[in-house]
Amino acid sequence: GRVRGSPLWEMVNNFRGEGYEEELMVLEKAPEEPAGELPSLVVKVEETSTGRENIKVQEKITSSPSSPLLVLLLSSMPRGGSTLLTEMLSTKERSITFFEPLWPLQKKKCIEDEQCVTQYLADVFACNYNPDFERWLKTKDLFLSYFSSDAKECTRITDQKAKELCLKKLNLREMCLLSPIRIIKVIRARMAWMKNLLSNNSLDLKIIHLIRDPRGSLYSISKFKDWNKDPHERCLGLQEDLQSFDQLSQEFPTKLLQVKYENLSLHPHNVSKDILQFLYGDGNLPEYLVTYISTHMTNNSESHSMSTTKESKKQYEAWRFKMPQKMLKVVQDEPTCLYSIKHMQHTLFKDQKHARNSSISLFVS
């Protein structure tokens, strides 16, 4: 029989519906959805007489926390500082971090479906996924490196055989179950979709909404060959998220925090204190976070596009001095981008010359 009663299990069970497989018994279907059985179950793969793989579920007693803190970092657009903030959050002891778990869904119908995405995130928070999801995650060094310090050590091993052995020993599901703090970072979900999760009072859920001036994000996105560069599509999601945040924060003031990438870059210590106070009720910066800020946010040795080691006080508005005139005009003329820029109380630039005048503040006083 199934063990019921845990808030996480109830949440997962309640969200099941159209667009999401209730029983993902065949492994070939993964990693479209993490799905699996209960958080308190161990999944074993067995081959049946028909040659099809079935998942055999056995009960397993764990000492997993009854009500873990669930942290969702929702960034409205790529290239908005979410990797940096994820790194900072993942320094918290005993936490585990799922970096972009929606990535396998980007070409699936589920990614456009509110109920499907919410169910998927609920499953991940509940450590409720089948072995193929874990196998997929272990092939993504960048994603896996944020999961835990042990996982990071495995990704750093250069010898392939030693690395494979290290990865094999990692039981990500068990580590997830035992963690009192579970963090998910996504750039492929909408804020409005989170209302059901927020409405569940038995969950200790906190959502950080990360936003950045869309001109900065779009300029950075323009350097990536195969990425969607459409200002309307990109800014529409941002506009909707800003509007949804304003509505939801009225209803759930203690569960939502909005963080501007520009503020984090300019005032990393103060903003980090605000984040810690919001998440843990204690705004004191631990030594390891102070060290992280000094090594990652005041150093100009940028190594690659996904690097988080940058001099953040210059980086946040570097786009102003590089963005071509045509792109500046196209972005500022797009109504959804214009809405977002004004909502953030940022300066609209008349032209490229105006944008590159460093005596003009990005912030409307």
TrEMBL record:
It comes from the Eukaryota. SUPFAM superfamilies: P-loop containing nucleoside triphosphate hydrolases. It holds the Pfam family Sulfotransfer_3. One of its GO terms (molecular function) is N-acetylglucosamine 6-O-sulfotransferase activity. GO terms for biological process: N-acetylglucosamine metabolic process; sulfur compound metabolic process. InterPro entries: Gal/GlcNAc/GalNAc_ST (IPR051135), P-loop_NTPase (IPR027417). This is Sulfotransferase. It comes from Cherax quadricarinatus.
